[in-house]
Amino acid sequence: MIKKKIKIPIYCCELTVILDKDLSYVESKYKTKSLKDFGAVTLKDESKYRHYVVAFEYPSGSIIAHETEDLIKHIEKNIDSLNNIK
Fold first, then answer.
1. What sign has the CA pseudo-torsion 41, 46, 52, 53?
2. Which of 1, 13, 17, 72 could be bridged to 50 by S-S, CB 3.0 to 4.6 A?
3. Terminal Cα-to-Cα distance of the chain (whole angstroms)
4. DSSP character at residue 20
């Protein structure tokens, strides 16, 4: 398994990128539903403040593009929820 943490200062968040032979580690660590038929997944780590995880079994171009879009949606949703607090 390869695991890399990346700080994203402009959005005050952290991203963990995981490359592994399967997603069983992600299932166990982040208590997700079964990821048996997934090749990749993007999720918000609810146990930490503004922490996101993107995990891949194999990093093909189209899968990376799809997961990047999912990551952007998670970050935007978090920003929108903070903007609605008054």
1. negative
2. 13
3. 42
4. -
Tokens encoding 24: 């069983």
Per the CB < 8 A criterion, the answer to whether 52 and 16 are in contact is: yes
Structure tokens at 41: 């997944």
Task: Identify whether the C-beta of residue 40 lies closer than 8 Å to the C-beta of residue 67.
Answer: yes
Per residue of the chain (86 residues), what is the pLDDT tens digit?
999 999 999 888 999 999 999 999 999 999 999 999 999 999 999 888 899 999 999 888 999 999 999 999 999 988 776 666 55
42: enclosing H helix or E strand: strand 40-45
